[in-house]
User: Which sequence fits this backbone?
RNA sequence: UGGGGCGUCGUCUAAUGGCAGGACAGCGGACUUUGGAUCCGCCGGUCGUGGUUCGAGUCCACGCGCCCCAGCCA
């Protein structure tokens, strides 16, 4: 029997987060032995970057815990789902590197058992067939601020429900005539609990089950029970399903041990915050608009955020995984900076992409002192990459350079070609441009220059070389098309616009005709190159042929020159802070006001007095604590007992609070110890004072014991002592904390603090 | 305006009452036959107001802001 273990932080693919904390605790407590997750895409569209993130969480966590993750196609709606999408999903998930072993499932695999469970629910009296028309069901459901009302069909007998449901299954009814609903609570403030629909009639052919069924389970029914059937333990999903959890738990609990479901392990749902990406949309509706509107060439257009698009662009799965790993997981919905994705792509490619030269916007440079040709050795990688390999590149009389690499009037800091300047031809000689040939409109159409002899592998003496530029032999260079892919949208948050298409970036694809060095001719077609000084490229897997080379730009190089050139436009408006503060409205009833005044008179702080006056349960508790001044007791009641009291979970009696507070007053324990004891008392139901006694939690306040500890800490952190003396006052808390740790919280912090102060001022 | 969820550098994310740290971005420098990579440095944050505490991003109260829920979608 395989068992999950808690991985060390270094061994994790998925950085520790609130979900792994829950799992760690579940493993430690023995609640689960084996971690089982699932990734449940609906086969109604192509996977995109959002699926990459969700799948990373599901597959990554399962792998980290040596558990398993099921790939489950959530196909409960025959109207929208297609086998072609299943294929795309399986393909893309494999591409990302996920391994589900034999655990490829379909919700439709479970249709028989789900049906059986629906009948079980009916027999328990917990589900009924509702025959209200669709509009009425909607109407009866109420609104978020008004409760729903029960359907007149809600109390049909088990027999009638069973009969109707079976006839639904047998195809006796039209679509919409009946639905099966769970009988939960039509007045619940959680809309999902207002008798959720479990099954509906759809007379459509399912891509897998054909015409076997004409009733199909809803997500809320099929999802939790599929999890349960498959033995999933942790069902991780995004935050919009938080309210569905109530239905999830209701179903799991009412069907536990039923219909062949085990009592344990039961699955539980945990929700994480959604992630979106700047300059991107992922909703199927919007993606369809781009495809159908002809704004992109298809679902795998290199500009698309689909995994097939990213793949065609040339992004490797390693980069995607690195990206989603860096994004991280939390409970909060977030929008990720697209620069992080670009960084991940570059970081991946930098180490693997051979460097070659291509000229995208060619300008002819005639080297007047070059005759014939010379084949020069050029390494594929710069020294810092540490990889072997080189190719030969031909230098001929005519070469192409990048039009943007020549300036008639070079700006300050220019490190390229200019009249009379010496510039390195990458991997070759230093060149000097003598003449710019211009047409009648004054535009530069060609350059004439000469190479400097004896500058191969060394710099000329007495001449300043300004930078190095890439180039391609005009005779040997291969003509090629270059597709420069850029962000699909001009604004970071196209989703926020009334019409996201307004932000479409018409410059997101720029096509260039240029030349590439001949060495690439026989390279494997999936080679990712770095075109020196331009970016990372690879052959378009669809359109590139030997006769007509087509390269896609995967991502540009970081370009500090271009950045400098660009006007320093402010990146983002400062986030607006919360508005003006509203003062608290102390609307009190006359009785509450009287209590408030009374508490005030007893010396209780204003804030505590207000809470105690308003929340009579807390007030009553306070007044049941005898033998101590009210003002001493009040903060404890409000801050320590109050939260438990409100939830109805308080386990500490007033007299027991009084007992331990007396110990505090006598100086036998510190406030910190009281807090700790109260916490334990709430957990165990024991008397706090008894906990103090049994666990030896008495306070350590005598200087003889504390002084050596203080000295020890001071000795252990000399550089912090120096920092403190230099003015970093916040370190006092650190020092005190060290002693608190060393005494397991028993030291009297006030005493410790004053000892430190005295010592540090010496 | 009912219920639920969430607020930490520009962005993402740590800190489980004890030094607010890291990454990306930005800025500056070193190095460079890629204005790449690498290295070094800098900038910059706890939504607000109070309270509790020796000590609060963390606990309490009151506000503010954003997101989700009224599909026979998932």
Assistant:
């Amino acid at each position: 029997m395989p068992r999950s273990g808690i991985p060390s932080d270094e061994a994790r693919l998925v950085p520790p987060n609130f979900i792994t904390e829950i799992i760690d605790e579940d493993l430690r407590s023995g609640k689960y032995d084996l971690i089982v997750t699932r990734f449940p895409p609906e086969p109604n569209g192509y996977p995109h970057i959002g699926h990459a993130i969700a799948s990373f969480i599901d597959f990554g966590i399962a792998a980290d815990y040596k558990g398993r993750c099921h790939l489950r196609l959530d196909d409960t709606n025959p109207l929208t789902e297609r086998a072609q999408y299943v294929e795309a999903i399986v393909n893309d998930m494999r591409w990302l590197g996920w391994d589900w072993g034999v655990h490829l499932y379909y919700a439709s695999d479970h249709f028989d058992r789900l049906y059986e469970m629906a009948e079980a629910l009916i027999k328990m009296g917990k589900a009924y067939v509702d025959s209200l028309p669709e509009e009425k069901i909607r109407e009866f459901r109420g609104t978020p601020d008004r409760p729903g009302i029960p359907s007149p069909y809600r109390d049909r007998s088990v027999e009638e429900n069973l009969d109707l449901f079976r006839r639904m299954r047998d195809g006796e009814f039209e679509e919409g005539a009946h639905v099966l609903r769970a009988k939960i609570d039509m007045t619940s403030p959680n809309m999902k609990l207002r008798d959720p629909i479990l099954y509906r009639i759809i007379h459509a052919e399912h891509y897998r089950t054909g015409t076997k069924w004409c009733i199909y389970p809803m997500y809320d029914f099929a999802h939790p029970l599929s999890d349960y059937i498959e033995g999933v333990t942790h069902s991780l999903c995004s935050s919009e399903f938080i309210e569905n959890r109530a239905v999830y738990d209701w179903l799991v609990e009412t069907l536990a041990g039923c219909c062949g479901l085990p009592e344990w392990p039961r699955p539980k749902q945990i929700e994480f915050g959604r992630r979106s990406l700047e300059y991107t949309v992922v909703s199927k509706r919007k993606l369809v608009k781009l495809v159908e509107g002809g704004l992109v060439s298809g679902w795998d257009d290199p500009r698309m955020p689909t995994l097939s698009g990213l793949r065609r662009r040339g992004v490797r799965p390693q980069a995607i995984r690195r990206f989603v790993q860096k994004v991280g997981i939390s409970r909060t919905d977030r929008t990720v900076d697209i620069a992080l994705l670009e960084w991940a792509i570059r970081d991946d490619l930098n180490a693997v992409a051979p460097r070659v030269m291509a000229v995208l916007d060619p300008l002819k440079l005639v080297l007047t002192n070059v005759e014939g040709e010379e084949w020069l050795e050029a390494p594929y990688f710069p020294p810092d990459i540490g990889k072997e390999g080189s190719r030969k590149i031909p230098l001929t009389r005519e070469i192409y350079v990048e039009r943007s690499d020549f300036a008639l009037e070079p700006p300050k800091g220019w490190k390229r070609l200019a009249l009379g300047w010496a510039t390195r031809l990458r991997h070759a000689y230093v060149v000097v441009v003598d003449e710019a040939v211009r047409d009648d409109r004054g535009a530069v159409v060609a350059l004439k220059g000469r190479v400097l002899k004896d500058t191969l592998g060394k710099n000329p003496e007495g001449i300043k070389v300004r930078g190095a530029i890439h180039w391609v032999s005009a005779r040997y260079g291969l003509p090629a098309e270059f597709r420069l892919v850029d962000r699909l949208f001009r604004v970071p948050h196209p989703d926020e616009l009334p019409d996201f298409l307004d932000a479409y970036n018409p410059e997101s694809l720029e096509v260039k005709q240029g030349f590439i060095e001949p060495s690439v001719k026989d390279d494997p077609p999936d080679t990712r190159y770095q075109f020196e000084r331009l970016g990372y490229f690879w052959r378009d897997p669809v359109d590139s042929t030997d006769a007509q080379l087509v390269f896609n730009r995967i991502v540009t190089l970081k370009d500090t020159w271009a950045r400098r050139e660009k006007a320093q436009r402010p990146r983002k408006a400062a986030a607006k802070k919360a508005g003006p503060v509203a003062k608290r409205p102390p609307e009190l009833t006359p009785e509450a006001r009287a209590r408030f005044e009374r508490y005030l008179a007893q010396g209780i702080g204003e804030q505590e007095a207000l809470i105690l006056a308003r929340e009579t349960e807390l007030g009553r508790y306070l007044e049941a604590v005898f033998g101590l001044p009210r003002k001493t007791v009040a903060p404890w009641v409000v801050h320590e007992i109050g939260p438990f009291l409100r939830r109805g979970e308080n386990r500490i009696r007033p007299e027991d609070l009084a007992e331990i507070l007396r110990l505090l007053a006598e100086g036998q324990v510190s406030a910190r110890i009281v807090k700790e004891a109260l916490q334990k008392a709430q957990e165990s139901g024991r008397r706090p004072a008894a906990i103090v006694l049994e666990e030896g939690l008495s306070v350590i306040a005598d200087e003889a014991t504390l002084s050596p500890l203080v000295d020890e800490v001071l000795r252990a952190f000399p550089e912090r002592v120096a920092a403190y003396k230099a003015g970093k006052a916040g370190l006092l808390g650190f020092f005190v904390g060290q002693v608190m740790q060393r005494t397991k919280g028993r030291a009297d912090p006030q005493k410790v603090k004053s000892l430190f102060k005295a010592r540090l001022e010496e």
About this structure: The longest helix of chain A spans residues 630-647. The first strand of chain A starts at residue 36 and ends at 39. Chain A is about 35% helix and 20% strand. Residues 567-585 of chain A have pLDDT under 50 and may be disordered.
